[in-house]
Amino acid sequence: MKFLLVFDFDHTIIDENSDTWIVKCAPERKLPNGLRNSYQPGHWTEYMGRVFVYLGDSGVKEDEMKRTMTRIPFTAGMIDLLGFIGENKELFDCIIVSDSNTVFIDWILKAADFHKVFDEVFTNPAAFSSTGYLTVQHFHAHHCAKCPKNLCKRKVLKEFLDKQLERGVSYTQIAYIGDGGNDLCPVMFLKKNDIAMPRQGYTLEKKISQLAQSLSPVQCSVLVWSSASDIMTYLKLLIKE
Length: 241
Known about the structure:
InterPro entries: HAD-like_sf (IPR036412), HAD_hydro_PyrdxlP_Pase-like (IPR006384), HAD_sf (IPR023214), Pase_PHOSPHO-typ (IPR016965)
Cofactor: Mg(2+)
CATH superfamily of the domain at 3-15 and 74-124 and 147-239: HAD superfamily/HAD-like
Binding site for Mg(2+): 8, 10, 179
Active site: 8 (nucleophile), 10 (proton donor)
Protein name: PHOP2 phosphatase
C-alpha cells in the first residue's frame, strides 16, 4: 500500500503567491504601472521574467530576495501536515507540481526543513545569472489548450506515474491538493479511487462545483479543506484502513 500526494505550492503549501510576494523587495514595495499592466493571460512566466529584470536593475540582491521569501507564512495546519507526512514516508510518496520556480521553492522548503518530505519538485527552472539577476524558464512544452503555455500539470502527473510504473511502483490512491484554475486539468485525469482536495473558497473548488452542476462531475472523490489539518485527518483515516 502506497499513496501519492501531489501538492500545488502557492496558496496551498504556503498561504501566499510566491511570485507576487517577491514584490516586497521592489523599491517602495511595488512595481511600476507599465510593468504591472504588461501581463498577458497564459504568459505569467514571461511576465515574471520582466519583474526579475526590474528587481535586478533596482539593485535587489539574492540574499535580500531569499530573506524576503523565507518569511512567507505556511497555510494553516500545513507545518503539522508536512511533519506527519515526513514521519510516514514509507506510506506516502509526495511531489510538488507548481507554476512557481525552483529557486523560491527550494529556499522556502529548506528554511523550514521540509525538503526531505518531497520526493520530487516539478516547477519552472530558475537560476541567478553571472550578473546576479534571477532568470526563469518554462518547465516544458505541451499541447494542452486548457493550461498556461509553460506548464500542463496533467502532463507532469501522467509522466511521473508512467516513470514510477516502469520502476514497479503503483499507488493505491492519488490525492491531489491544490487551489488554482491550473489544478483542474490534473484533477480531471484522476480516477474513481483517487481524491481531489481543493482549498475552500479558491478557484479549483469553484471549477469542480461548476462541473458538478453542469452534470459532468470529476471522476474522483472530492474533499474541500480550509486548514491542512482537514487533510491530515483524512490521511490518518486512510492509513488506518
